[in-house]
Design a protein that fits this description.
With 76 residues, the protein is an alpha+beta fold. The chain has one domain (3-60). The chain is built from 1 helix and 4 strands, in the order H-E-E-E-E. A 4-stranded antiparallel beta sheet has the order 1-2-3-4, covered by helices on one side. It starts with a helix and ends in a 16-residue tail after the last strand.
């Protein structure tokens, strides 16, 4: 698996499509990672697994505030 090629292909497929922005970044160990941000701030980080046996995909979305009384950490 060529992580650099896969990362570049992912970025090329998403960048500028339907409100997506995508860039190639580097992981803390210097490997390529695709950083994709889509509509409403949803995002994805795509990189090769540290063991080089597959692909790791992390997703995230903007935080939101729960209504009063809905927080699982609220005192009873």
């Amino acid at each position: 698996m060529d992580a650099k090629e896969i990362t570049s292909d992912i970025v090329a497929a998403y960048d500028g499509e339907d409100s997506f922005a995508a860039t190639v970044e580097q992981t803390s160990d210097g490997e390529p990672r695709a950083h994709i941000v889509g509509p409403n701030g949803a995002g994805y980080l795509v990189s090769e697994d540290p063991d080089r046996a597959g692909v790791r995909i992390a997703s995230f979305s903007p935080c939101f505030v729960l209504p009063d009384g809905m927080s699982p950490s609220a005192d009873s």
